[in-house]
Amino acid sequence: MASLSLGLLFNNAYIDDITAPDDSAASSDDEVPLNPPPSTFPLPSLQPKYDTSELAFIAVNTFAKPYGYALTRKRSKTTKKGVMKTVRLGCDRGRRYIGHTREERIRKTSTLANQCPFSMSVRLDLQSDTWYLTVEDETHNHLPSPGITHPVHRRLEYVRKAIWIHDLIRQGIHPRHIITTLRNDDPDSTIQPRDIYNIRGRLIREYLNGRTPIQALMEELPKGGNWIFKYEVDEQHHITALFCMHRTSLAMLKHHPWVISMDCTYKTNRFGLPMLDIVGFTPTGATFHVALAFIQDEKQETYTVILRCLAEAYDSLGLAYPRTILTDKEKALINAIRQVFRLTNIMVCLWHINMNIMKKARPLLGDQIAIARRDNISTRPMTKAQMDKELRQMVDTGWKKMLQGWNRIVYADSVSAFQTSWTWFQAQYSDPIFLPILQYIEDEWLNDCPEQFLHIHTAHYLHLHESATSRTESAHWLLKRELQSSTNDLLVVLQSFERALNRHYADIQYRIETERAKIPTKINPLVSLLARRISLNAIQSVEALIKRYLPKGADGKPPIPSSCDCRSKETAGYPCIHLIIQYQQENRSFEPSDFHEQWHLYELGKAPPIEPLLLIQDPLPVRRRGRPPGATNLIRSSQASSTQQSTQQSTQQSTQQSTQQSTQQSTQQSTQQSTQDITFDRSTQREPSAFEPQRRPPPRRRPGRPPPSAHNHGQIQGGDRGDIRGGRGRGGRGYREGRGGAVASTAGDRRVLRSSQRSQRGAE
Fold this sequence. Notes:
- Helix content is 43%, strand content 12%.
- The chain has helices at 2-9, 12-15, 53-64, 151-170, 175-185, 193-208, 213-220, 247-253, 300-316, 331-340, 350-375, 384-410, 415-428, 435-446, 455-458, 470-480, 490-517, 536-549, 568-571, 577-585, 612-615, 637-648, 652-672, 713-724, 747-763, and strands spanning 39-40, 71-78, 84-91, 119-125, 130-137, 139-140, 227-233, 239-246, 259-265, 275-281, 287-295, 324-327, 345-348, 735-738, 741-744.
- Strand 7 (227-233) and strand 8 form a beta hairpin.
- Helix 4 (151-170) packs across helix 6 (193-208).
- Residues 21-44, 621-764 are annotated as: Disordered.
């Protein structure tokens, strides 16, 4: 394998030119020399002429790269007029290493410099104003090495690809991804990750131009109106709070300011400042960033500064303050919200409440199960791992049961239902071992902040069915995935966030414009006026209510409350089931005004006119002229099945029952006068008019005795004779059902059978 690696590493063309070391060169004590004997590598052609010395330098190194060496500029000479006339080139390993004389400053490192004597020059021909090459010393004192070990080759490749690499760096692409792209495009690329880091550092230094990152942040980012910054400093002028708002945030907040969510995230910057992320919600169901804030501590005073900056943004846009703010149970933040937004409702994340209760309940459930298992020792042998697994499963089951009971308390729709559920929960967990968890729930949640999460209170808040801060945490991830490291300064952090905000804003606009442009192919007449004006998310919520409750009284459908106390319009901004039923009965379609502005795809008064095509609906079924309601030629859907059923039954009792049933249904439906319940047969024959007599259907012909050849064994024994005697015959083993039951075949039947058999044999 070693020989294979060397063969791949070095080109055979110049391996043959390397002079093997002479045995006589070794010293008497058999020491191996550090450098091999002098050798020569292939030289570039000296015939070409070059317009500039730079082109000659590039051409020489392009030739030298495959042969394992590189050239650098050593010095140059000029004429008396200052015109450069000679550029001396030397091997990049021709330098001499000069170390420090002081012992404590000597670095433990290595060097590529070994005083290689190779040299050549690029000279100017004054007559032709061109450059040509000359060689002074063509020997090298080192082995050839790949181009990746020569900084000159890496630098020349960077010059060719500088613009493309700079664009990738400005887009926030990680150096390792840039290297991967380079290697995919050019497997022989010599650029290393360290080169990309160095290039990025140089670009940052050029951008700063002698300023600190925070100074450049305050000067450069607000240019063009992309950012709004407000900050607060202490006595030493250190920033303690930085409020940041992007132009895309202002554009989205202007249309959707009613419900926002706040939550802190960490590990975003080198200073360890927590970042308060404030987000809102779009009509299409997406999340947008309202503002970002870097704070020194999570105290009420700091939160108050940030929220006042947010209130100024609302005032500058002429917006009313948010109706509801969703957050965790952080006392400092909640107190600051109450201080700045006095009329705003506050909701606490229900998911975090459940997790806090679970953290305290699971150990108690485990203790209870362990005590029960100790009292009831099982005779089944089990290993410790099996016992632990069974214990975890039992704890999970116990927690799910407790969570169901807790949800009954949270989602109780009245004060009496809440009290009943809480009493039931206390009775379920009356064991003294659960006393701490009951005390915790009562003190920490039910007595401290019930109005912030119980349904009997939040049913009066506009919260768009948002009861958790999970979407805020998803917004954290959207920003933090742009960060390549958690140790960047605030300038790099906000530059990374700006790329994410612009991309996310474009995605939100794409969703909104798509819903504005798409024409539904199938739409419920109840929401036909909402297409392209109300978001599909809200329309689907209305259709989900219809699917859940209607048709009324069907199997699996929950009962509809008699009084309209459901608050869908107040909490979510779209109609409730009672209003849906009312509009269905009135054969009306919902208007955009029936929905909260949160779900509008356009501003009020700016929506385009409704497409006439969306207003066209199927014609309503009409009553046919002819016989009055109740006539036999007018068949209702409820009568069709009963009529078919009565036709199939021939007994008098079944006929009377079906007649009574169809008569009752006909009476009820004629009272309702509903045209939607009318169905017609598939025939295109004209129906008789009202003055034409209704012709009775011909009486059923009583079957007689058919020719013997038409009878088979089963028909003779049961089918025909059963009909003759007034019953319903069935072929079989000589029995038929009449009105009185099963009657045996007579002797005459047997004679008919024998006669039939003789006739068949004679015919054969």
